[in-house]
Structures are given as C-alpha cells and as structure tokens.
C-alpha cells in the first residue's frame, strides 16, 4: 500500500478511522443520555454534572465512561447500589453503531456529516418519545433549520429539495392530524418536517413509507396478541426515526427504483 505524504488519516488508515468514529459515537451517546434525561424536563444540559438519581452522589469521570463503567459497576450505583438503567449503555452502543455504519457507507463526505447530526438526534428523539410520549420541540425545531443549512452549505441535496421536504413532511402530518383527530400529535408533524429538511422530499417519502409499514406491522402484532387495545396510543416517533435513518442510507436509491417501476 502506498501512502502519499499528505494523504489524510482517513485515507491512510480506514480501520483506524472506523475506530475513531466508534469512540466518538460512544462519547456522543453518553451526551445523548444526558439529553434524553434532561430535555423533556427543560433542565440544563451543562449544569449540574451527572449524579445518581437515587442518592445524588456525583459521578466521577471513571463512573462516566461509556459502556465500560456500566459493565465494571455491574449496572449499579457505586454509592447506594441502585440499579442503573440498561438504557444508558444501549444508547451509547446504538449511537456508536449507527455512526460507524454511516462512515462505512459514506466515507468522509457530506452524507456522513448529515448522518453525524441526524442519526444521534433520532436516537434521542426515539428514547424520549418512548419515555414521555412526546417529541420535544427543543430538538425538532432547531433540527429543521440545521437540516436546511447543512444541505445549503454542502449542496448534498438542493435547497429546493430540502424546503419541499419540510413542507411535505409538515403538510402530510397536518392532514393526518386534522383527519384522525388525535391519532398523531404536533410533535410528529415537526419531526416529519425535520426529516424532510435533512432528507429532501424524495427520501422523506421513503422514510414515511418505512415508518407506516413498521408502525402498522408492530401495531397489528400488539393488537393480535392482546398486548395493546385498539384505543391505546403507540408512539409513532420511533418508527419515524427508524424510517428516517433507513432513508438516509437507502432513500434516494429506493425512490429511483420506485420511479423506474412506475415509469416502466
Ligand atoms: Zn446512588
């Protein structure tokens, strides 16, 4: 293998770069755990530092290492022994996994930059929606703007594609909300608009399609097995997030395939 002197680390050592991305993902996942715990309560992300919810003992840096601390402490607080939720290491692992997958798929590119912003936001929104049945404006509203600006700056997709995505994502959910009267909420609408901003309208349609299929399938299973009644709400945010993530990886290709199918 020949390595030009000015070639970047990414080119020179792809495996090393994947490891760097993975470590970055773990650290980012650790921050997302703070976001998930604090944003719904409207608390500061910076102060105070992390503490055990049981005994309020502040966490030292060595109790705060992603995944590793959880394993070393066997999932319990060092001071009071209270169980630490398995969600913490899961969020860290998932964040690292999606970023490593994105780097493997996109390499150092605008697509990867978008992935580094969109995918962690979707991980946080999923956990918050599962916990609180709400999708916080504090993430989706800035998300709409950030998605548009990233696409403007990187020209990954055209500004028009992104603006149409915002209008389509928001508009479709507005219609659903008006028709269904309470089936979906304003949070879903803003998340739809945010996905449209990042993905553009074509990949957004793929994201919505995936979300409806996944949500419908799980809803049918829960109904059939009697684990949820017909009236029980099932949060749609996690399905939108899953659809959005899949559309980031494969959306444009699926859309082209759809068009080919309809055209030919
Ligand atoms: Zn404790």
Provide an overview of this structure.
By secondary structure, the chain is an all-alpha fold. Helices cover 69% and strands 0% of the residues. It contains nine helices and no strands. The chain has helices at 9-12, 14-38, 68-72, 87-106, 110-132, 137-154, 159-180, 186-224, 237-263. Helix 6 packs antiparallel against helix 7 (159-180), helix 7 crosses helix 8 (186-224) and helix 8 (186-224) packs across helix 9. 34% of the residues are buried. Residues 1-6 have low confidence and may be disordered.
Give a brief rundown of this model:
The chain has 264 residues and is mostly helical.
What is the fold's blueprint, element by element?
Layout: H1 9-12, H2 14-38, H3 68-72, H4 87-106, H5 110-132, H6 137-154, H7 159-180, H8 186-224, H9 237-263
Which key features would you list for this structure?
264 residues, 69% helix, 9 helices, binds zinc ion, 0% strand, mainly alpha
